[in-house]
Model the fold of this input.
Amino acid sequence: MHAARLTPVIDNSGDSIGPIDDALAAHVERALADYLAERHAGMAEAAPSFGSAVESLASFVLGGGKRLRPTFAWWAWRGAGGAGSGEQAHAVLRAVSALELIQACALVHDDLMDASAMRRGKPTVHVEFAARHRALRWLGEPERFGAAAAILLGDLALAWADDMFAGAGLEPVRQAAALSPWQAMRAEMLAGQYLDVLTQAKGDESAAAALSVARMKTAAYTVERPLHMGAALAGAPEHVIAALRGFGADIGVAFQLRDDLLGMFGDTDVTGKPAGDDLREGKRTLLMSVGLRRADAAGRHADAKVMRTALGDDALDVDAVERVRGLLVEVGAVAEVESRIADLADSAMSALRSVDLADPASAVLDGLAVTATKRTS
Done:
């Protein structure tokens, strides 16, 4: 890929894709494409070999994703009184788009730590670079090269997220206000990643451990902190920020619990990852925690053993995954997690309705909450 192919295909005039409110994902996409094209051009000139690696990162960032984090941040900004157009609106758009680079860092590293082969229906970054090494018959171990490339590109995404946020053109007072949630979000994301691997290493089956991972790894940096950041950019009062954070914390955990169910029961064509991957990777999700607790409590020790044996078995076949699926339904774990999702969604909506937000932010955030937590089948 040459630098020109990273140039955004959408015209640079704001009117070409409509108002930001009406075409937010397209505006985020353009902001990311612009930024990555600029950084790629400079890197390709200074270090052509690394420039080709940057192309892979850009393709990964621009190759899919729901853009949830910028969306939550934008609608918190709008709900707290931020304008939907003008110079500052576009600065805010660039700042919240940088959240997608933090997400890219998390995904690239997460896939490596979990030894995942697919993401969004394509080879993960470490797998892609290992295959490149193998095809070109370079020296050394392909897997080690792939791991090194993924670590470095994930780090680059995080560094560029900071650069994009800092260079967004925000008013200094507003940038200073948003710096606190931005910094907290980065640390919480990394803490969540560590808690995830720690829980697997310890074999911790407790619901408390599973919920801690969901809270730190997903809820904080996917929903709560983006909302906090957007509200801070608009100069929202503390009670509004607190309500939005409460909404975000509950919806974020509910979103992770829904993702856990999809990881076990979802369609690969929809999720982009093989069904049962979390099971093979040994993820101690709340779904598995509840399933094991309920099986033990019911005296179904043989069934509990089947589930425990399956956790972390990377050679698990389709029939074995189906067996665990059936047990999770039979012991009531799926129903209990569904009930937990519903309770969290209700609590989140109570927090959202406790404050008055500028139209149409409340309705949009309500819709986002439904989309993030609804059943898909």
Observations:
- Confidence is low (pLDDT under 50) at residues 1-15.
- The chain has 17 helices and two strands.
- Strands lie at 118-119, 122-123.
- Residues 170-377 form a domain with the Farnesyl Diphosphate Synthase fold (CATH 1.10.600.10).
